[in-house]
Structures are given as structure tokens and as C-alpha cells.
Amino acid sequence: MSLIKIDNLPPQLFSYLGLNHLTPDQQMEILEQIKEVISNRLLEKLIDRLDLATADKLALAYQKNDSAIAMEILKIAVPDLAKIIAAEITAYISELTMEVNK
């Protein structure tokens, strides 16, 4: 389950990464990988900021595979969630860019 809901990325991103030659299916696969990596990183960063009851609620949402509830729990528990998500997306895109440009 991915916490991040990204339906599409700007087409320029794939061009910027040198991946504009990929088919739409391949781009979607990359998009899913990006969402999964960012979600996992977010959980690692945020888990220490949650109290036990909130962590239990989040675990239950994950067991039910309900990303909407999980995100609502995090929005309440972590007031600066949007900034953290934006920072993780930016960091990961930067890492991808460095990897592609090696």
C-alpha cells in the first residue's frame, strides 16, 4: 500500500531524468516505484513521531490496506506532514537524477 497518491507526474520529469523514451506503461511502473519508495521512507521518518495509540491505528489501517485512513491518521498526528512529503519527493527525485546521470 502506498501512502502517496500521485496519478501522474509532469512529462518533463521523465525528460529531465533522460527517461522520456519509456513507454507509458514503463513510466507508470517507474511512478509506482517512486510512490512505494517515498511511502516507505515516510513511514520510517514518521514512526518515531507517533505515540503508541496512533501507531496502532496506523498499523490497523495498513492491515486493512486503507491508505486514505492511514493518511488521515498521519495528517492529524504530524502537522507538518505536507512539508515532509514534499521534502521526501524532492530528495528521491534528486537521487534518481544523480543515478541516471552517472
Structure in words:
Helix content is 71%, strand content 0%. The chain is an all-alpha fold and 102 residues long. The protein has a domain at 32-100. The model has no long low-confidence stretch (mean pLDDT 80).
Return Rg in Å: 15 Å
The number of helices is 5
Q: How much of the polypeptide forms β-strand, as a percent range?
A: under 5%
Level of helix content?
over 70%
| Largest sheet report | none
What's the end-to-end separation, in Å? 31 Å
Shape: elongated
Mean pLDDT: 80
Flag low-confidence runs: none
- How many extended strands? 0
| SSE pattern, N- to C-terminal | HHHHH
Would you tell me the structural class of the helices and strands?
mainly alpha
Summarize the structure.
The chain has 102 residues and is mainly alpha-helical. The protein is built from five helices and no strands.
Key features?
about 100 residues, mainly alpha, 5 helices, elongated
